[in-house]
Each structure stands twice: as structure tokens, then as C-alpha cells.
Amino acid sequence: MKWEQMWRLTAERELMGMLSTSLADQDIFNAVIKQNPFLVYQLPCFWNVQLSDHTRSEQCYRDVSDLKVIHWNSPKKLRVKNKHVEFFRNLYLTFLEYDGNLLRRELFGCPSEADVNSENLQKQLSELDEDDLCYEFRRERLTVHRTHLYFLHYEYEPATDNTDVTLVAQLSMDRLQMLEAICKHWEGPISLALYLSDAEAQQFLRYAQGSEVLMSRHNVGYHIVYKEGQFYPVNLLRNVAMKHISTPYMFLSDIDFLPMYGLYEYLRKSVVQLDLANTKKAMIVPAFETLRYRLSFPKSKAELLSMLDMGTLFTFRYHVWTKGHAPTNFAKWRTATTPYRVEWEADFEPYVVVRRDCPEYDRRFVGFGWNKVAHIMELDVQEYEFTVLPNAYMIHMPHAPSFDITKFRSNKQYRICLKTLKEEFQQDMSRRYGLG
Question: 226: which strand partners?
């Protein structure tokens, strides 16, 4: 057909008279079609039911039972003037919120290439023992979740000095309210994995579009992992968020924490000071917590220390799980002015800044328990040095307990399986790194 020539000649000829086009490429297509009507095969109208203002498409859909394509072809999109607009809008919104997992089915009677990934998955699943009391935990590790990367517009060029740091976290619908606050505290790039259903993804979209704070930021990558199965795949989410950063360093945080003001710039300076590029270090940002929903956030370390003394702040998990952060050595931190090294201890789970080539989180840990501990343990085995930053801090904001921690506290089987997975992880570590 010599299409390349055909459209160029038509465009040049038309533009001599028209000078410009209002619909860009569509005008060119229309001009080509007008001159070469034989190119067009006319489809029935139900393949393109156009819903612009005062459209005559009712003449089509009134007589057709099986519409194929509804086309919101007006700049107003869903706000067009059409007497049946509510019906079509509801149809459209229902489809958007439809559970996409229901569409993930094998097409029987439809010949397709053998999928190696799918065959491997079937093989791994068949090797699991269905009578194992921890079968569901083991199965979750093999689940392939639908994932929508960069759900909203993302545009970011890392700083050219190779010190840039991305804040990494994961969340579900019940923690959305933390996003604006984190954006106000951290001006650098952020990578977030969100665990949502299809319907929740639409709610999140509306929430984000209605937020001036979120819409003004293009350096936040939102990656949606769609819900499937009964557990919260916390470490899979962390891995998704970690994998999609473009900076040389990452700050592995949690969504319930607000970083101190200025932490982004302070971490970039510390990266240079501690030569993170050429050493295996994990820089620790000391973690604190408040039990107050309305907190006057400390602007400095001095202010934070006086709030600690007054009892409006505590070291993180001081009341329930001291071991998790004890090695940070908060007593030393109070007066420290230079970074200091600490040794790993069992159950240590600090929040750290590392190079982007650090190991992934172990997917076998889902829901609550041991998900961060296992990661820090692996960093230690890989001989990372843990270094506490003297002028950095982050504060955990209060919230209702998550569904998974409630399950952990109330369900004996959950606790037994976590213990089994923990033992298996330690055995794997011994094998992999030749320990003991």
C-alpha cells in the first residue's frame, strides 16, 4: 500500500489549505480515508458506541443486545450530556472495580504456547504437601500476584553526585492517610508497594487525584500488587518497592514512620561521610514512637531528647519488644556526635540505609513476624557493618493493630508455623553461607 508515502502526501496536501489540524493524527487518518474509501471495512455501530454530548448513538444501542465497545469520546469523559449516561457510567465503574483475578483463567480449547513459568509453578505446587499444617504459608510464597508498576505518573532523574536515596515502604488501604505526611517530611524520591484489590485501586486513584500534596509530587513511584490469598505478603511488597528504585541507595522504612525533617539531605551527606559506595555498611536511623495521635513533631535531636524525658516519646517498641531495637544503644545515641558501630544481636530489626544491591527480603515470611528480623540477620551474615547515625531519627505514629498481628496473637497455628518457617530459614542460611 506504500502507507508511509500515502499519509505523508495526503497530510502535505491537506495542510496547504488547512494550515493546522485540530485532532492531530486523527485528522490525517480521516483525510486518507476520504480519498481512499476502499481502505475502510465498516463494522456495525455496536463496536464503537460513542458517548459524546447529544450523540445519536441511542439509535444503535436501543436495538442491540450485545454492545462491544462503549467509547467516552468527549473531553468531558464521564460527565457528558446523554440521557443514559448514568447507566453507562455505572457499567464502566463496575467493570473498573471487577476483581481482575477472575479474568486470570486458562483459555481451554484455545491453542497457546506452553508457558515455562506456568509449568514450573505447577511443578512447585505439586511438590507441596497439602496435609502440612503450614501448607497455606508455603503456598503463598509461590503465588504470582498481578502487579501494576508506576500506577501514577512518575518522573525522576537521580542526583548526579551518586548520593541519592529513595525511601522504600509498603502499605495497604488502611494506611493511605500516612502518605501526605510522609511526603511533607521527605522531599526525596519514594518507592511504595500498595497491596490493594481492584476496587481499592480505584479508590486510591480518586484519593490521590484529590490530594494537592500527592499530585504535586512526580518522584513517588506507586506500584500496585493486587490482592490474592489470605496473607499480607509483606516481604514480596518490600521487594517490589526495592526493585523499582533508580537511586544508588535506599532507606528501608515502614509506612507508619515519619522521618525527621531534613533526613533526606542528612542521609545523602552520611553516604559520603561513611563511604557507603565502597564499604558494606547499613546505616541505622534510630526509631522512636509516640502513643499520641496529635504530636508536635520534634524539629531537632535536642527537642526529641526532652520529649523522651517528658514521656511524650519512647524508644520504638520499648513496651512490647525491646530486643528489636536494643542493640541501637539509645543511651549512647543520646550524647553521640559521630556515627558509631553496633553489633548484630538476635531479633534485631532496625531501619537501615543500604546500597541498592543489598539482598532481597525472604518471601516465606508473610503477615506478621520475623519479616524484617530475617533480612537484618542476612545482612549480618553477609558481613554488613551496622552503623548508627547520631543525628537521624524517625517516629512511629500510632494506629490500630493490623489484621495480621491480631491473627498472630489469637491463632496458635499461625504462631507454630511462624516458628517452623523461622527454623527453616536459619537452616537455609547455614547451608547457603556455610555457618556452624
Answer: 196
